[in-house]
């Protein structure tokens, strides 16, 4: 057999992957380490141990509403993705690629495209596409690289689209805490995700991500297929129809009647939301956003039984969110609520350091670096924005930096640590039956090249914008 030459990107990804398979711990371990590191940092600035423990306990349940919203986001995205019409679409897509590398490229492109609309559906649908492709033995597709490609939207583009929690919060006055509203006013989507500068960034990141996915995909003897992992996926059982039911009560479960009635009621409410409000404000409400996808899932599945079966399958993908989000709430509180005798927190000292070395020109780069670092410890787009916004937006006002672009600086930078923080990988990994260590080599390769590109784009594109005072 002729040995194929290993390219630079492929060699880098495989080397990191081999290392991570041996040394990389589960994402829950990272959450525990984050708690300990932040607690030690709070203690080092003089915060009393009682204050640190108090912040840990108080923060543990602080993100419960947001946790439920994120759980519903995952469930609704999963339910839509596993419906029969979407499943047929997935298998039609799976027939397109002619080799493993092109299959991985397709997964990466679809992941990023869908992430701009719904990040949970992006990871779920892309993961299901990976499974459909992996079953094609003729492709000889590397399962690890394909899984990483399914996740690339979460590290590259999701926060620059409609899924952006920060942009959603800023566009809707009712969602904004008063202290942030007084600094920023309402910032519509036209000044954040729909800026031409933001759209240029999205296009550049898509091109770069697809190229890296292609060049880093293993070939030859380096390929590890689905069969090499000895993972089995159960075949779907045929759906029941009303004529196949044995009990009278089963008829309601297998009939579309109830679904039709409830869907009509839900669609009327959705119509009212979008007709009575600016559509951009309506879609920025996370509850409306989730409701829209749940009703869509209900319609696509047709019967209550099919819908409930899909929800049951979605629940395991939420386990990491349910157990780890409380710990991230504790981390956020310890960073902001555990204060020393001067009334200052860890977050205050970090922010002051970065702001003190910034000016109007360097602000996007410096705050981008800060937001990316903090994002590793607090991987919550909306929750972290509430922590950062008061001092980030105050600095933006003081330095006369475009406020909408400041939100996009946050969005582009805070997505970057997703490439190495396994937290948001959990739903996708649960579906693919993999561990973070299996894909981290390929996501780290993406990060290595994304980081300088993102920081450069934040700087150069920011220079084309002028400051506009807050609009109330």
From TrEMBL:
Q: Pull one GO CC term from this UniProt entry.
A: plasma membrane
Matching Pfam families:
SCFA_trans
The record lists the membrane-crossing segments as: 28-47, 59-80, 100-133, 145-167, 193-215, 256-274, 280-302, 314-335, 415-432, 439-462
InterPro entries from the entry?
Answer: SCFA_transpt_AtoE (IPR006160)
- Keyword entries, A-Z: Membrane, Transmembrane, Transmembrane helix
Q: Which domain of life is it from?
A: Bacteria
Descriptive protein name: Short-chain fatty acids transporter
């Amino acid at each position: 057999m002729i040995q194929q030459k290993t390219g630079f990107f492929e060699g880098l990804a495989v080397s990191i992957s081999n290392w991570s398979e041996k040394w990389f711990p589960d994402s829950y371990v990272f959450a525990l380490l984050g708690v300990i590191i932040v607690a030690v940092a709070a203690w080092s600035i003089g915060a009393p141990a009682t204050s640190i423990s108090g912040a840990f306990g108080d923060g543990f349940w602080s993100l419960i509403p947001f946790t439920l919203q994120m759980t519903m986001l995952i469930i609704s995205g999963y339910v839509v993705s596993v419906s029969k019409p979407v499943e047929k679409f997935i298998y039609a897509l799976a027939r397109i690629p002619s080799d493993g590398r092109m299959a991985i490229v397709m997964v990466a492109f679809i992941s990023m495209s869908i992430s701009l609309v719904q990040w949970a559906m992006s990871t779920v649908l892309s993961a299901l596409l990976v499974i459909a492709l992996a079953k094609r033995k003729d492709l000889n597709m590397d399962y690890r690289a394909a899984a990483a490609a399914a996740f690339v939207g979460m590290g590259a583009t999701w926060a620059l689209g409609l899924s952006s929690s920060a942009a959603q919060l800023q566009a809707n006055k009712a969602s904004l805490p008063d202290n942030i509203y007084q600094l920023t006013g309402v910032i519509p989507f036209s000044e954040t995700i729909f800026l031409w500068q933001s759209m240029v960034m999205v296009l550049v990141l898509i091109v770069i991500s697809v190229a890296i996915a292609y060049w880093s995909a293993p070939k030859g003897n380096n390929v590890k297929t689905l069969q090499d992992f000895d993972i089995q996926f159960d075949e779907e059982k045929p759906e029941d129809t009303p004529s196949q039911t044995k009990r009278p009560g089963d008829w309601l479960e297998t009939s579309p009647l109830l679904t039709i009635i409830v869907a009509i009621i839900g669609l009327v409410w959705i119509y009212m939301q979008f007709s009575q409000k600016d559509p951009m404000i309506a879609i920025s409400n996370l509850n409306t956003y989730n409701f829209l996808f749940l009703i869509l899932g209900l319609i696509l599945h047709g019967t209550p039984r099919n819908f409930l079966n899909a929800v049951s399958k979605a629940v395991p993908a939420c386990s990491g969110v349910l157990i780890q989000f409380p710990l991230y709430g504790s981390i956020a509180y310890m960073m902001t609520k555990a204060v020393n005798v001067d009334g200052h927190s860890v977050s205050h000292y970090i922010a002051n350091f970065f702001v003190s070395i910034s000016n109007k020109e360097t602000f996007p780069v410096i705050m981008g670096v800060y937001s990316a670092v903090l994002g590793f410890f607090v991987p919550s787009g909306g929750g972290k924005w509430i922590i950062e916004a008061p001092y980030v937006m105050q600095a933006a006002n003081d330095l006369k930096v475009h406020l909408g672009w400041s939100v996009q600086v946050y969005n582009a930078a805070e997505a970057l640590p997703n490439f190495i923080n396994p937290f948001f990988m959990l739903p996708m990994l649960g579906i693919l039956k993999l561990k973070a260590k299996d894909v981290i080599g390929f996501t780290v390769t993406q990060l290595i090249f994304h980081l300088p590109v993102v920081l450069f784009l934040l700087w150069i594109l920011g220079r084309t914008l002028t400051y506009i005072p807050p609009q109330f």
